[in-house]
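Structure in, sequence out. Go:
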């Protein structure tokens, strides 16, 4: 698709033509459309967030994942309006969708993220290590005093079987004063 080669400003002019493509019956067309949306500015995407949000419950995991990732590119204050619709995606059958949902929630402003931290904490025990790692990163975006209340759930990730999870746990916990962990 030639549109992928265009810059964000030019793409904004074609957004009205691209958005219907994310609803196309052909998965390849949908995928191409999401790749083009990835290049758009958050302000342009915000105008079409409702259209994108409709795909959170699509039958195809790739479409659900792309919809969440695209919503995750919104400015945090705009993304906050869709957080309640992203939370149910944390129980999706696909680890890729769950990971995208955690990542999107982790982009919320810290005060808003705090409202969803209880759901993200549950992802620390996900079978997929990428989901666990992304959950630790998201929790690490909380303000320190809020992060401290969830430290007890992150500490066990220091012994995770996967290096990426252990490293993200060290980084998140490193934001806390040592006395908090004692």
């Amino acid at each position: 698709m030639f549109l992928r080669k265009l810059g964000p400003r030019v793409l904004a002019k074609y957004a009205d033509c691209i958005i219907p493509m994310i609803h196309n019956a052909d998965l390849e067309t949908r995928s191409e459309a999401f790749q083009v949306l990835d290049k758009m500015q958050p302000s342009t995407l915000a105008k079409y967030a409702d259209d994108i949000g409709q795909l959170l419950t699509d039958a195809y995991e790739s479409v659900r994942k792309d919809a969440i990732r695209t919503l995750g590119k919104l400015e945090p204050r705009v993304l906050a309006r869709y957080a309640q619709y992203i939370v149910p995606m944390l129980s999706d059958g696909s680890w890729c969708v769950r990971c995208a949902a955690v990542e999107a929630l982790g982009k919320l402003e810290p005060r808003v993220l705090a409202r969803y931290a209880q759901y993200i904490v549950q992802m620390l025990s996900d079978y997929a290590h990428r989901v666990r790692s992304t959950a630790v990163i998201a929790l690490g975006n909380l303000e320190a005093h809020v992060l401290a209340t969830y430290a007890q759930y992150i500490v066990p990730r220091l012994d995770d079987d996967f290096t990426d999870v252990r490293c993200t746990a060290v980084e998140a916990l490193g934001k806390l004063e040592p006395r908090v962990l004692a």
